[in-house]
Write a structure and sequence with these properties.
Length: 241
Amino acid sequence: MARIHMLLQGKGGVGKSFIASVLAQYKLAKGQKPLCIDTDPVNATFFGFKALKVQRLQLMDGEEINPRNFDALVELVAPSKHDVIIDNGASSFVQLAHYLVTNEVPQLLQGMGHELVIHSVITGGQAFQDTLHNLRQIVPQFPAEAVFIVWLNPYWGPIESKGQGFEQMEAYAAMKDRLSALVTIPTLKAETYGRDLTELLQSRQTFDEALAKDTLTIMTRQRLKIVRDQLYAQLDNAAVL
């Protein structure tokens, strides 16, 4: 059985492509050969990671899902024996979520022996309410065949409301039965870890590519290794992965 990992979040710039790249790298580290697809119609950041051999596929035709293009996506996914990682753009969030549900795609994939795993992101700071709203919008729409993993990204500030962390919020209590795992991106000091990771993403390099570069300082590589290992350790504990 292959798991079809799909990034869905209607807020742009919250780390979806980074998460897609981390998932792909994690799968490679486990000896898999993930099929990586970027369907973002505006910012194909995931496609820029050449080491991950990401394919680009346009799903949108104007403001609507192009059914024939979506058919092509299913044809790519159907025969896969390894996990598939699909990064989607914020601008296609509403249309794609609706298309997946109304066309019973989670059930279709299950019938093929696959499982749909939806990854969404919640951030701190100004985007917190938007990202939380988008998550609350899609979770009840999807049938039980779809599994959800939530990534908490504190880059723009703590993920809290009225002094409560995410797991203490009413929103979490309402959704927790549908959430298979929470993954927290480490809080990074801007002048060291944060800068190192930002430069890594801007160069569209994987952790392993960066760790192999002797042009980077020893401590830069050490910090990147620590971040990678912290993320991988959490993914190890996510049974659905």
